[in-house]
Amino acid sequence: MRKKIHSFTASLGLMFFFVAPAYSQSAQLIEAAKKEGKVAVYGSLESDTGDAIFRLFKKKTGIEVDYWRASATKVMDRALSEYRAGKPLFDVILTNDNPMQIMFKEGIFAKYDSPSAKDFPKDAIDPNLGPRYRNVIIGVVYNKSIINPAEAPKSLEDLVKPQYRGKLVMPDPTQHVKLCSMFWYSCCTPRPTGTM
Q1: What pLDDT was estimated at residue 195?
Q2: What are the residue ranges of CATH 3.40.190.10 in the chain?
Q3: Which residue in 15, 53, 109, 174 is a FRET match for 40, CA 20 to 30 A apart?
Q4: CA dist 73 to 77, 97, 123, 191, Å?
Q5: Per residue in 96-135, is it b (16+ CB within 10 Å) or e — as a string?
Q6: 176-188 tens-digit pLDDT
Q7: How far apart are CA 6 and CA 110, in angstroms?
């Protein structure tokens, strides 16, 4: 039953992100979630965004949300540790794509075909995880007093040029999965010249 609730509540969380109605869920699953008393959500959504979603969720369902927020990597580590120990304490995981794909491969998620998926473009629906609920935009920001705008990096590959040595800052890649994948893609994936 907990596995069904995991998929049910994950889908509800995503649906409320898009302000979709909860009536598309079965009454049986909603009642099962209400008996449990609350939904435990692990995620990397900013707290103010999560709070707004969770208020709507409670208003629509009457179910409390207990939200634990951390980086995507920490969310994945905690969820996988609990799952591997046979004692998952989460109902819903809301984080970015790379950790979700890793957790999917570990078998942590129950399959759920959301009725709201029909409203998404086909390229926004992951065959395993369903509709994508957010996109991460990656860019390069530079200080014009240190780097002349005419010499600014034009691609991620440019960041490894000697002229930028000692001038870069970035989040800890062991704590931010998206950053690791960005650099792997940038440095290790063949693609046409002139593209990022």
Answers
A1: 45
A2: 2-131
A3: 174
A4: 6, 11, 25, 27
A5: bbbbbeebeeeebbeebebeeeeeeeeeeeeeebbbbbee
A6: 655 555 555 555 5
A7: 7
- Distance between CA 134 and CA 110 in Å, rounded? 20
Mean residue pLDDT of the chain comes to 77
Single-letter code of the amino acid located at 74: K
- The class of domain 2-131 in CATH terms is alpha beta
- Dihedral of the CA atoms 167, 171, 177, 183 (nearest 10)? 0
Parallel, antiparallel, or unpaired: how do β-strands 130-131 and 125-126 relate?
antiparallel
48-80 residue pLDDT tens: 888 999 999 999 888 999 999 998 899 999 999
- CA–CA gap between residue 58 and residue 67 (Å, rounded): 13
**This prediction's pTM:** 0.62
End-to-end CA distance of the chain: 45
- Judge whether 72 and 101 are in contact, CB under 8 Å: no
pLDDT higher at 182 or 160: 160
DSSP state for residue 93 in the 8-state scheme: E
Q: What is the CA radius of gyration of the chain?
A: 20
